Amino acid sequence: MKKESSDKVVDLNRILKEKESEIELLQQTFTEICSELDLDNVFRIASERARELINAETLLIPLLDNNCETYTYRGGAGKHADEVVGESLPLEFGVCGWVWKNKKPWWQGMLDQLSDDEKNAWEKESSTLILVPLQGKRHFLGGIAGMNKIGGGAFNKKDLNLLQLFASIVSIAIENAMAVSSMEASHRLNDDYRQRLEILNRQLTESSKELEYLSLYDSVTALPNRSLFHDRLTRDINEAQYDNSTIGILLIDIDNFKDINDTLGHDKGDILLNRIARRFEQSINPHETLARLGGDEFIVVLPGHNEAQTVTRAEAFVKSLQQDFNIEGNRIVVNASAGVAVYPEHGNEFSALLKHADVAMYDAKNSNAQVAVYDPASDRLEQGHLSLVSDIRKALEERRFELYYQPKISLDTGMVVAAEALGRWFDSSRGEVSPQIFIDVLENNGLINDYTYWAIDTALAQAKAWQKTFGYIRVAVNVSPQTLMHPDFRHNLDQVVINHDEGRLLTFEITENLFLSEFDRLADLLEHIRSLGIELSIDDYGTGYSSLSLLRRLKVSELKIDQSFVREIVDSRDNEILVHSTIKLAHNLGLGVVAEGVESQEVMDLLVDLGCDTIQGFLISRPLPAGQFADFVRSR
Ligand code: C2E
Ligand code: MG
Ligand code: MG
């Protein structure tokens, strides 16, 4: 009896001791784990403590994944744990699935609650496995699984109770640590986002700076564009209003820029525009604005300038182009026309001033002047450029253009040897519009080919008619580079000029600009033109860049020295030398020389001395309507 009771005491003592150490373990776990925020540490501590608690060979902590379709062994301790931790399995798989579904612990005492299928599948291992759910405050988290009792035997009810108690403690810690880690992850994500945002922001600022630049500056010339010009002029107008001052507005248009673009290509055209901008820039003061309006148009705003001052500046700008440009080895001479409008005389807001400068610029072109001031009284083009285009289109459809003829006189015999056909347009509301303007519009609106075939046809018919009365007078037609280079030109020409007899009555005047880049392509065509009996004449010679030997190879028969040289031979020794040497060289190559723009006897006399063959100019006659031209020939 005594032995029995003392055994009981020993037993009780043992149980008490066990309980004490279990409680101590739980407490320890609790303090350790609850202050632990690192999830991996929480799993490590929990697995080790739980394994000790229930004496399991292996302890694993499977946790439900975010996708709610799989679970992953996040923690483990003991035998083979390392191999399993990190593995993921489908949720419905195995005992874990059962625990998840039933939210109940699994241990051998559950066997009788299983379906027959489950019982068959799991009966064997039921005693070696214990799995209690980890239920967090908010979510079901997963479970704690013990496998194989150390020293054999089954996990019992006591193990179950202990593990459940344990699970209730660690689930809170796990949930906290998970919250912290997902917070950290989202912080990291945040930081990541912030960094990416910063980069994006920087890129955005840069590209918006670039956009701002592009929206205010012209990419070809790096000058302010129309929009910035608008701002500047508006600002200047406000200031001028305030201190009662004037502003000069100057619109500069490059003559025949389209030819340059067509013959040299747009790349070189752009380079030229850029060079022109740089040259203009040299004459600009800090408070003035030089902008590119688009195409070949530049605009200058000159605060504090009256009309006379603006005209002086305009002349200087145009003059600054006199020095030729060298674009990749090609010498290019550029002319320009400028229109002047002055605030407040010619308008007190942006659009009126711009429009009136434009009208003045057209006036300048129309009158062959370099600079013109807006003249409200003779504002014939007031109707604007758009209606000009449509009126020119209509004039072409209705064949309302005319050809005037200007005689070319032999300096040897004084006889009319040829005539240049020059387009004329008399518009009922605008009056006479210069070919400088309408040819430009025809070229820029795809109408020049149609016009040119009409001109060739008309000139040829005229030459044929004169042939009967006067014999042989060649008529020269100006052919734009655009038309000459059109793939259909050869075919269309063959429709207009049927045979050699007809061809002998024609000359084509082509500008020198044409021969640079297109030489190879044009050689065949020019040969064909010559085979029709048509002669080739180089117009405006001296303003382009072709070499004389190249012209020889192209079987050109005549050079027309540009008026700008001819007019000044008496005043400028340089021009005299230039004209003289051109004549000599041309003769050596078998080319005839025509001097254009001869306006005075003095010039004519000098040209005779220099050995020039033919002259054309107001001194002899202005371009005349066909009837008057016939009278003129008769009078000679
Ligand atoms: P261009 O071919 O060089 O023609 C000579 C220009 O000089 C003509 O101007 C003529 O009237 C002018 N002129 C002749 N002698 C004198 C003179 O002594 N002093 C002055 N100051 N000028 C003189 P126009 O008729 O105004 O033609 C200007 C330009 O328009 C022509 O220059 C030509 O490039 C173009 N053009 C005229 N008609 C046609 C045409 O039917 N087709 C094409 N493609 N262009 C044409
Ligand atoms: Mg000509
Ligand atoms: Mg000419």
Compile the SSE list and pairings.
Elements: H1 2-34, H2 39-54, E1 56-64, E2 70-78, H3 81-84, E3 88-90, H4 94-102, H5 116-122, E4 129-135, E5 140-149, H6 157-216, H7 226-243, E6 247-254, H8 257-264, H9 266-281, E7 289-294, E8 297-303, H10 307-319, E9 325-327, E10 330-332, E11 336-343, H11 350-366, E12 371-373, H12 385-397, E13 402-410, E14 416-427, E15 431-433, H13 435-444, H14 448-470, E16 474-478, H15 481-484, H16 489-496, H17 500-503, E17 506-511, H18 519-531, E18 535-541, H19 548-553, E19 558-561, H20 563-566, H21 573-588, E20 592-595, H22 601-610, E21 614-615, E22 624-625, H23 626-635
Parallel strand pairs: 11-12, 14-16, 16-17, 17-18, 18-19, 19-20, 20-21
Antiparallel strand pairs: 1-2, 1-5, 2-3, 4-5, 6-8, 6-11, 7-8, 9-10, 13-14, 13-21, 13-22, 14-15
Helix pairs in contact: 1-2, 1-6, 2-6, 8-9, 14-16
Bound molecules: ligand C2E and magnesium ion (2 copies).
Short description:
The chain has about 625 residues and is an alpha/beta fold. Strand 13 and strand 14 (about 415-425) form a beta hairpin.
Do you know the CATH architecture of the largest domain?
Answer: Alpha-Beta Barrel
User: How big a fraction of the residues is strand?
Assistant: 15-25%
Weakly predicted, low-confidence segments: none
| Proportion in helices | 40-55%
The CATH class of the largest domain: Alpha Beta
Strand line-up across the major sheet: 13-14-16-17-18-19-20-21
- Whole-number tally of structural domains: 3
Small molecules held by this entry: ligand C2E, magnesium ion
Spell out the CATH superfamily of the largest domain: EAL domain
